[in-house]
Design goal:
Elements (H helix, E strand, L loop, with lengths): L6 E3 L7 E11 L3 H12 L4 E4 L14 H8 L7 E4 L3 E2 L22 H11 L6 H14 L3 E2 L2 H17 L4 E3 L1 E2 L26 H6 L4 E4 L2 E9 L2 E10 L6 E14 L2 H11 L17 E7 L14 E5 L4 E5 L4 H7 L6 H8 L4 E8 L5 E7 L2 E7 L2 H20 L4 E4 L13 H4 L11 E2 L30 E3 L14 H17 L2
Parallel strand pairs: 1-9, 2-3, 2-12, 3-9, 4-18, 12-21
Antiparallel strand pairs: 4-5, 6-8, 7-14, 10-11, 11-12, 13-16, 13-19, 13-20, 14-15, 15-16, 17-18
């Protein structure tokens, strides 16, 4: 029996047991899995995509933190790292993955990073010519553009003003949101459809071929193997609201692609004995960030405009400065004021607050992921070199706000010293501040199933195939041998295209 049908499928239509047979089974419908599906169906292969989360339409999204955390975020938005620092590490859940909740920022992979991957890690397929072709396709498919000034609005424009006053190299960011209206709630899912997440682009392209069935509300946990081949995967279908099992699903295929993300992919491999922990689940990097709030005399209205629209390029120094805006409850968490009158005054004047931060290309930091009886355990040690770069970026960010006319700047640190003049910056943001006094945030896990030239140094080969398995591939940000130093969604899509192309061509 083969229940496979092209199109979108979800729990309300599943029988008690779902049995599928296809050319390729993809586990995970995020940036990598969706791009791989487009490449594979474009080559004429039948595909089943299995996704733990649900299908979403723009009209389904609500402007509520509780709704978003429950339905669109891994671990209901409570996922964190532990180590010498504690960081929130959110990730998306649903057909579209993290592109449902990210800020749509698009950077091509830095050429020096691709060169390092080729020369130091043996990733010979990551060539400039090949990836430039992928980038051109991605730019067209997901509608990458720079949003007009009319929707950037004050949180981005005030930071631009300060950067230009200091002579810094800044630009509006390219984003996969050609229809953005500046409603400032990207992290809740785009309610207007102005953001082109991969469910609406690459996966829609694959669906247009009538060669892919996208099965939402499915949690896959087990594999069946014969020799060096995976022959089937199985798991449960889920109630989309309660997440309780409703039935079972089994998929047999000629080839399997694991696109469960940098946390889910290594855990799946380890749980099923498909890789060992020498490298699988190791080498996790995350792009630590530290935010700042700045109070201005004029209204900023940070909730209005592109969520993250402007950046200052300090990549050669190991960091970027990027604007951001969050919901009022999250601004409250960043305030270092006493609970009571002082905090209420800040919140009542939230319309005068701007926000931005520094993002670090982590080079001497790293972590790991493993499964425990209580769930995934994410460890991350923040290195001294990266901390120094983060502090330098945070100090520069404060300078930009002051140059733009901020009355005061508040870095996200437990000691919470307010900055009113340039002379205050070094004492408020010192290099010797302990890492655990920083209120850090990260949203770009990478590297836990890294590519390489040898099973002694990596989890997968240069085409994305898991060592010692003839038909099992990985296609997500866990493939990256190192940190990128820029937002990773475009590189993840490029990896999905590369893996899909390699499978289709048998290379």
């Amino acid at each position: 029996m083969n229940d496979w049908r092209p199109g979108k499928h979800s729990s309300e239509s599943y029988p008690a047991h779902v049995e599928l047979e296809v050319d390729v089974c993809i586990i995970g419908a995020g940036a990598g899995g969706s791009a791989a599906a487009a490449a594979l169906t474009g080559a004429g292969l039948t595909v089943a995509v299995l996704e733990e989360g649900s299908h979403w339409r723009p009209s389904d999204f609500r402007q509520e933190t509780s709704f978003a955390f429950k339905h669109l975020y891994q671990e209901r938005g409570m996922r964190v790292t532990r180590g010498n620092v504690v960081m929130p590490l959110p990730g998306g859940r649903g057909v579209g993955g993290s592109t449902l909740i990210n800020s749509a920022i698009c950077f091509r992979t830095p050429p020096s990073v691709m060169k390092e991957w080729r020369e130091q890690y043996g990733c010979e397929r990551v060539t400039d010519d090949r990836f430039n072709g992928y980038f051109d396709r991605i730019w067209k498919t997901i509608g990458v553009t720079v949003n007009p000034v009319a929707v950037q609005r004050n949180n981005n424009l005030i930071f631009k003003q300060g950067a230009e006053a200091l002579g810094l190299k800044g630009e509006f960011m390219a984003r996969s949101a050609p229809g953005c209206v500046g409603c400032g709630i990207c992290q809740y899912g785009c309610p207007t459809g102005g953001k082109f997440s991969v469910d609406r682009t690459f996966m829609a392209e694959a669906l247009g071929t009538n060669l892919v069935g996208v099965y939402a509300d499915c949690r896959v946990s087990k594999v069946e193997t014969v020799g060096d081949r995976v022959v089937a995967v199985s798991g449960q279908t889920l109630h989309p609201d309660s997440q309780r099992p409703q039935g079972s699903i089994r998929v047999s295929a000629k080839t399997f692609v694991l696109s469960a993300g940098p946390i889910g992919s290594p855990l799946f491999l380890l749980a099923n004995g498909l890789a060992d922990s020498t490298h699988c689940g190791q080498h996790m990097v995350v792009h630590p960030t530290c935010g700042l709030l700045a109070r201005f005399e004029q209204e900023i209205r940070p909730w209005s405009g592109v969520t993250q629209g402007y950046y200052v390029d300090c990549w050669e120094k190991g960091f970027l400065l990027q604007t951001y805006s969050v919901t009022p409850d999250q601004y409250f968490l960043l305030l270092q004021t006493r609970i009571g009158k002082e905090t209420l005054e800040y919140l009542s004047n939230l319309s005068h607050i701007a926000s931005a931060g520094s993002l670090v290309h982590d080079t001497d930091s790293g972590g790991s992921v493993r499964q425990t009886p209580l769930g995934p355990d994410l460890y991350y040690h923040f290195g001294e070199g990266d901390k120094s770069r983060l502090m330098a970026g945070t100090r520069l960010c404060a300078e930009v706000f002051l140059a733009a006319g901020a009355l005061e700047v508040m870095p996200a640190m437990q000691i919470g010293r307010t900055i009113k003049t340039k002379a205050d910056i070094l004492s408020a943001i010192p290099d010797d501040l302990p890492a655990n006094k920083l209120l850090l945030y990260a949203s770009h896990p990478m590297g836990t199933c890294r590519m390489g030239a040898s099973r002694e140094t990596s989890v997968i080969d240069a085409s994305g195939k898991v060592w010692d398995w003839a038909n099992l591939h990985v296609a997500d940000a866990s493939m990256f041998p190192t940190s990128l130093g820029v937002n990773p969604q475009v590189t993840t899509m490029a990896m999905g295209l590369m893996v899909g192309e390699a499978i289709a061509h048998g290379s």
